[in-house]
Every structure is written in C-alpha cells, then in structure tokens.
Amino acid sequence: MVVIAIIGILAGIAIPRFIDATETARGAKIVADMRTIQAAEIMYYAKYAKYPSNTAATTGGDANFVALIQGGWPTPPNGSFSIAKTLGTGTAGTFTAGTTATAYTYTNASAGQADPGVLTLTGGTQGGKELTELLGGTKTTNP
C-alpha cells in the first residue's frame, strides 16, 4: 500500500513537468523553424540580390525561396506551445503561451523586394506575430 501511495505521489509530481516540457519543445520548434526561414531569406538575398516576394510560387512568390529550406517549408507543431521571452526589459522568466498554430507566412510588399519581408506565425492565439514579438520584443518595422 505504501509503495502504491509513493508511486502515486511521484506520478502527480512528474506528469505536470512532462506536459510543460512538451509545450516548451513545441515552442522551441517554432523558434527554430522561424530562424531557418529567416536564414533562407538571407541566402536568397545573397544569391539573387533581392529578397523573396512571398512564401511560395502558388501565392505569387518565388519557388526558389522555398527550395532553400532543407526539407521544404516547415509547419508548426500541433498542440499548445510555450516560448521563453528572451528579448525586452523585465521579461526574464516569462513565457509566450499559445494554442495550435497552422502555418508560417512570409510576405514582402516592398518595391522590387529591396527590403526584407515579414515572417509571421499564422493561426492559434498568437497568430500574426513575428518571431521578435514571440520572444518578448517589439514588432519590427521595415523602412
């Protein structure tokens, strides 16, 4: 009986920690995916001397941009996520929590793609936010 009680107590402590760990892992994947897309944007600029226009050729963009991302255009993980806020003053120890996101969207409305585009998370409670905002910083503006 005592052994069963101890196992129950340990399970009660461990299960919430595992749930937090999966939410944090999903958040880490979102950050890594968005940084991978940003790296592809820089490689595209180095190769073509302009920034890509949109996510894919099907949306009027350049398929060469998507081709620079190894494994193809990523998709966000299913389920709720948690991203540690590492930017901004007073954000240490705080998190951006969100529900299932559906996609990453890259758009560039600058004339001739002279300026970098905007990469946002689509869907869920954090939809429309850029990576900087998810990390606790302020929204960026292009010149």
Description:
The chain has helices spanning 2-48, 63-67, 131-134, and strands at 81-84, 95-98, 103-107, 118-122, 129-130. It is built from 3 helices and 5 strands. It has one domain. The strands form 2 sheets. It has a 3-stranded antiparallel beta sheet with strand order 3-4-5. A two-stranded antiparallel ribbon has the order 1-2. The chain has 143 residues and is an alpha+beta fold.
Q: Keyphrases for this structure?
A:
143 residues, two-stranded antiparallel sheet, alpha+beta, three-stranded antiparallel sheet, elongated
The general outline is elongated
Poorly predicted ranges (pLDDT <50, ≥5 residues)? none
Overall domain count: 1
Please tally the helical runs, counting DSSP H or I stretches of 4 or more residues: 3
Strand content: 5-15%
User: Helical percent range?
Assistant: 25-40%
SS-based structural class? alpha+beta
Mean pLDDT: 81
